[in-house]
Amino acid sequence: MNAIYGCSQADVVTPPDDTLAVVISNGWVNAEYKRLVLQADGAACMSQPGQFFNLLCPNEGDHKPYFRRPMSTYKADPETGQVEFLYKVAGKGTYGLESLLAAQTLEILGPLGKGFDLNPNWQHMILVARGVGLATLAPLAEAAHNLGIRLTAVLSARSEKSLLSKERFASLGADVQVVLDEDGSSSIEHLEQRLRKIIVHEGSNAVFTCGSKRLTRLLKRLSAEFDLVGQVALEQQMVCGLGMCQCCVEVFEVGGLKVGKRVCLEGPCFNLAEVVG
Amino acid sequence: MIAIDTKVDLSVNVGGLRLKNPVMPASGTFAEELTHLLDFNQLGALVTKTITSEKRTGNPMPRVCELSDGMMNAIGIPSKGADLFIDKAVPFYRNFESPLIVSISAPTIQGFANLAARLSSVPGVAGIEANISCPNLEAHGQSFGMQAGSTYKVVSVIRQVTSVPLWVKLTPNAGEVAPIALAAEEAGADAVVVGNTLLGLSIDIERGRARLGNVMGGISGAAIRPLMVRLTYQCAKALKIPVIGCGGISTADDALEFIYAGASAVQVGTATFLHPKIMNTMIGELEAFCQRKGIRSIRSLIGALDDSPAMPFGALP
Fold first, then answer.
1. DSSP symbols for B122-143
2. Taking a C-beta distance cutoff of 8 angstroms, is the pair A269, A231 a contact?
3. Which regions of chain B does DSSP assign to beta strands (E)?
4. Is the full-model pTM beyond 0.95?
5. How many Cα atoms occupy the beta-carbon half-sphere of A60 within 13 Å?
6. How distant is the alpha carbon of residue B291 from its chain centre?
7. CA distance A200 to A192
8. Positions of chain B with pLDDT under 50
9. CA neighbours closer than 13 Å in the CB half-sphere of residue A45
10. Which of A154, B6, B159, B290 could form a Cys-Cys staple with B295, CB 3.0–4.6 A?
């Protein structure tokens, strides 16, 4: 395997800043999810695929989150200065976010963490995601597309209605395959058969996932068996998002040793081989 | 025309060190990663997360939970050990002019002494903060700082092996804190920090389990501020050495409460988790307050609380 480059294709990752971003829009994309578009500029719009922000969600009204809420970047565009998030309205933090109107402001700390690694020499890669994990993988699909890497995006959801970002993946030239709970196609057995076929047929180099422990275990197993690069974006409760508070530590297995790593700083994107499943 | 010097002197003397201002981080809420967001050179001092000689894994998850006006933590002092700290962290902090205070902990008195002695000879270490008060290390929140006798013993042994400024971080979980602060002073501490988090328990009634993996944990944030201001006041009254106030400070106004109560300096903790640049903001606000009040030196506000008795209420119900 050749050397792997960060998505940024640069040696230096943009240091985070605490940006007072202005809401451009905050509309529903389906019955559960909203898309928040912010004018952020500066460091924020340099966010790389897999990186995240720690959002100071509004705490007026009935819902008073005390901590910030970590949220992966759905889109960041250095040219327009815009940053986007896709979020499910569930819980104190996102109830506050849901109330944001155009022209209101939001403090966003980021970009934070280590994003996905991409290799421009890859021919094909597979993204498998469920729930809001799809939002995390969307910018990765865009980066792969820009590098000319062919892409299969397997989107898993309860039903057709709760699917996210299908059009965005399709517009990036991805072969979009939808698997659903309602017809049983999202079961691990079916999915494994499907992925095995894709890997062999496409000669895949790498697999990526986010949003499901079951999917993570499956892809860890398949990436080991086929000797593929495998990466996962993990979610964990966070406070500072900067590595100081040590509350988001997960156990990983590195060279036969159990090692604690901070999801916010050493992650949130990790090598699947190191994930303890 | 005579130029009027409106510059405010924010410098303070704390336990053997002259600090450019009274604002510094609380241990455990500050790390190298903040350097992109916070101007370290503006701070009165830099206080590290507590280090131990040995590597430590820390407590089980979840390690934090949020309260309506604060948080609880039971992180459990995960530590990469003193070797790595001295090799990697101390050289990083040498790049900054603010004095480096290393917070230390150990399970035994001898362990405290060994670590303090070792750090004292490391160039760039300006002082030691002995964390004898972490509520998350021993069962049921026990620590050396819970009693005057054990506080005296551990501080006097550390004092014998180090000549660098020695600050002692006390715990609000002891019933009477002032006698424990006095024990630290008599044992040779140069300053006391009042104090660590307040031991609490938060329960998820749906699951019938504690919200923290360690069951109990330390409360911090605005919720505990009046209690910590009161302890600062009582300790400052009792001691000759400086008191450093800590607990729920997120604005200059909060910091000034502690200073009026007798704190020579303040530590900012939980607020930095929410607003990483807040200490820089606070320093500017302190200066603005002094200017507004016509105060030349912030030292004149230390212990300036007017606590003369209020007029007795002169009527029967």
1. STTEEEEEEE---TTSSGGG--
2. yes
3. 12-14, 17-19, 23-25, 46-47, 64-67, 70-73, 100-104, 125-131, 166-170, 191-194, 198-201, 203-204, 209-210, 216-220, 243-246, 263-268
4. no
5. 3
6. 27
7. 12
8. none
9. 16
10. B290
Tokens of B14: 């704390």
Strand stretches in chain A, DSSP E: 5-6, 17-28, 33-39, 52-55, 69-72, 75-77, 82-88, 105-112, 117-118, 124-130, 150-157, 175-180, 206-210, 229-233, 249-254, 257-262, 269-271
Active site residue B134: yes
Give SS3 for B69: coil
The pLDDT, as a whole number, for residue B5 is 58
Six token digits for residue B300: 């004149």
Which pLDDT value is given to residue A10? 42
- Residue for token pair 């042994």: B157
Phi and psi, residue B140, nearest 5°: 60, 30
Torsion angle, alpha carbons of A170, A175, A181, A186, to 10: -150
The token pair that represents A57 in the structure block: 């969600």
Reported as a single tens digit per residue, the pLDDT across B251-275 is: 999 999 999 999 999 999 999 999 9
State how far the Cα of B8 lies from the Cα of B20, in Å rounded to an integer: 11
Reduced to 3 states, what is the DSSP secondary structure of residue B100? strand
Chain B neighbors of A107, CB-CB under 8 A: 275
The alpha carbon of residue A239 is apart from the nearest alpha carbon of chain B, in Å, by 6
Q: Compute the distance between CA of residue B259 and CA of residue B255 in angstroms, rounded to an integer.
A: 6
Query: Which residue is closest to A108 within chain B, CA to CA?
Result: B275
Token pair for residue A97? 């976010």
pLDDT digits (tens, 9 = 90+) for A33-80: 999 999 999 999 999 999 999 999 998 877 889 999 999 999 999 999
Return the percent helix, strand and coil in chain A, to nearest 5.
25, 35, 40
Paired tokens of A234 = 């993990």
- Is this complex's ipTM strictly greater than 0.90? yes
Chain B interface disruption, residue of A13, A244, A251, most B CBs within 10 A: A244
- Residue whose token pair is 């030292």: B299
